[in-house]
Amino acid sequence: MTTTPVAAEAEATPTVAPRAARPPRSIPGFAPSLAITGTVLVVLVLVPLGALVLAVARAPWDTIVRALTDARTLAAVGLSVGASAVAALVAAPLGVAIAWTLARYDLPGRRLLDAIVDVPFALPTAVSGIALTALCAPSGWIGALFAPLGIELAFNRVGIAIALLFTGLPFVVRTVQPVIEDLPAEIEEAASSLGASRAQTFLRVILPSLMPSIVAGTTLAFARALGEYGSVVFIAGNMPMRTEIAPLRILSHLESYDYASAAVVALAMLVASAGLLFAVNAAQRRLVDRGAQGA
């Protein structure tokens, strides 16, 4: 049987398989969603931050140096950072205990207690500041208990820490509670059956699983406390070099029409907060990776 040249050429030409169709995305509207998200982030985040950076860039160099080295400003920034750190560190164990109680125990009125945790989120900061001042003042319900002992809870640094703890505690609770709820109770039973005590079970089995969420919640509490103003300004007393916080120092610059100095202090606080958040996020990812490798 003879093969014609046309048939031979057709046999020699390799056949190309049709290109597989790209599977449809499981979530439609990816491009519009990305465009909306990018636009919102640029308008609400990048534009205000860019305006702040531009305001500092336009300021004279001597103004920048004077604003950053002013003793009153340094004292206010140091007080804000120190009080925020103390409040966040105190909120960490308290938040874990509250989250554990709400997640693991069926207490009477548990739903009411769960709703009370969210009160600082919904309560205006000025209202919380007035309420805390009324309670912690020497004539208040709580302050009157400590006044005979010579302990003042209001109009000093203790009052500032109390106000920051009030606003930051819910962040720890709401970050840790879902993790505890998803943690199976079988691992505690397994650790107990292997002879581990309750302390050993918590420290070696439960705590490593909770550490990433504890770090995240503590960081959120610190960041929230660092920029808190309304709940602190009433209970602090606002005495320069003693109880004046950084946001109040920024406001004092604005009231004296020194916008450049206010922008410099605000940018310094922003850089410090962003650097801390990036460092904590890196540490949190490391904890998650270490936990995954241990599992």
UniProtKB/TrEMBL annotation:
Stretches the record annotates as Disordered: 1-21
Subcellular location: Cell membrane
Domain of life: Bacteria
InterPro entries on file: CysT_permease, MetI-like, MetI-like_sf, Sulph_transpt2
GO molecular function, one term: ABC-type sulfate transporter activity
UniProt keyword Nucleotide-binding present: no
UniProt keyword annotations, A-Z: Membrane, Sulfate transport, Transmembrane, Transmembrane helix, Transport
Membrane-spanning ranges: 34-61, 73-101, 121-147, 154-173, 259-280
Pfam families cross-referenced by the UniProt entry: BPD_transp_1
CDD domains referenced in this protein's UniProt entry, alphabetically: TM_PBP2
Record membrane topology: Multi-pass membrane protein
Record-level GO cellular component terms: plasma membrane
Domain ABC transmembrane type-1: 77-278
Keyword NAD recorded: no
Subunit structure: The complex is composed of two ATP-binding proteins (CysA), two transmembrane proteins (CysT and CysW) and a solute-binding protein (CysP).
Family (UniProt): Belongs to the binding-protein-dependent transport system permease family. CysTW subfamily.
Purpose of the protein: Part of the ABC transporter complex CysAWTP (TC 3.A.1.6.1) involved in sulfate/thiosulfate import. Probably responsible for the translocation of the substrate across the membrane. Part of the ABC transporter complex (TC 3.A.1.6.1) involved in sulfate/thiosulfate import.
Protein's recorded name: Sulfate transport system permease protein CysT
